[in-house]
Write a structure and sequence with these properties.
single chain; 252 residues; Rossmann fold; 7-stranded mixed beta sheet; globular
Length: 252
């Protein structure tokens, strides 16, 4: 058997070499442009508003308006400064309080065009340009410089969750590992498979479907963690595996 394989390879050496070269070139092109096409994929998936999901967000972020800024100047104006980590295309603008100062971070520079288009629709928010950085490596943003931090669908892909959890007030909405195994064991198995084979992390830039961030959040030294497990009302069947979600507010 081995002899036959070696003989075939010898007789088809040029063909095999050509195929390997083509695959190598394709791989280089795909990985070199991954950030660009991932930004477009996320824009395509979020450009249409999903009313039921927006209602969930509206309810979750409603209490942001009740915070009082630690900055004397902002406190006089009755506004707060918010940091959004992993801002992407900017899908949370509609849920931020009027007049707030918004600082945003994302590791993918190709989100800028979509983010800028969205921010133009909300002149009531003082939003800054995107700072290109990873959520777990934001040395340019000092501790205590913001009043609240928002993360949505971020912890599934960061390398070091603990470094994101250093803030005083954290609003989070994350998809998680399936938590009702009696009803949805198939979904848990699919989450494991798509993550293990690398397909989902490749398409969605490192996203791990079967990650559960709650142990890290609950062990990060917050004095109070309010959390709700729920199934996100996503209308697209493609995201059925992302329906198990948690949302909450953690304060130190």
């Amino acid at each position: 058997m081995l002899y036959s394989i070696l003989a075939w390879l010898s007789n088809n050496f040029i063909t095999v070499l050509a195929v390997l070269v083509v695959l190598w070139i394709v791989q280089k092109i795909v990985f070199a442009t991954q950030d660009r096409w991932f930004a477009y994929v996320m824009h395509f998936c979020t450009k249409d508003e999903f009313p039921k999901l927006e209602e969930v967000k509206k309810d979750h972020f409603a209490s942001l308006k009740d915070h009082v800024s630690h900055d004397p100047e902002l406190r006089k104006k009755k506004v707060i400064k918010i940091l959004e980590i992993g801002v992407g295309t900017g899908v949370n603008f509609a849920h931020y309080p009027d007049g707030c100062r918004l600082v945003v971070v994302d590791p993918n520079p190709h989100f800028k065009e979509y983010y800028d288009n969205n921010r133009k629709k909300f002149p009531n928010i003082h939003s800054e340009d995107v700072l290109v950085a990873k959520g777990d490596d934001m040395h340019m943003i000092a501790d205590g410089s913001v009043d609240a931090v928002v993360i949505t669908l971020v912890l599934c892909s960061v390398d070091n969750i603990d470094k994101i959890l250093r803030w005083q007030v954290l609003y989070f909405m994350e998809h998680v590992q399936e938590f009702d195994l009696k009803k949805y064991s198939l979904r848990k198995n699919l989450q494991d498979f798509f993550t293990w084979c690398g397909l989902w992390p490749f398409i969605f830039d490192g996203c791990c479907l079967n990650r559960d961030p709650m142990p890290a959040i609950e062990g990060a030294g917050f004095s109070k963690v309010e959390v709700d497990h729920y199934y996100a009302p996503v209308p697209n069947f493609l995201f059925w595996v992302e329906m198990p979600n948690v949302k909450g507010v953690a304060t130190k």
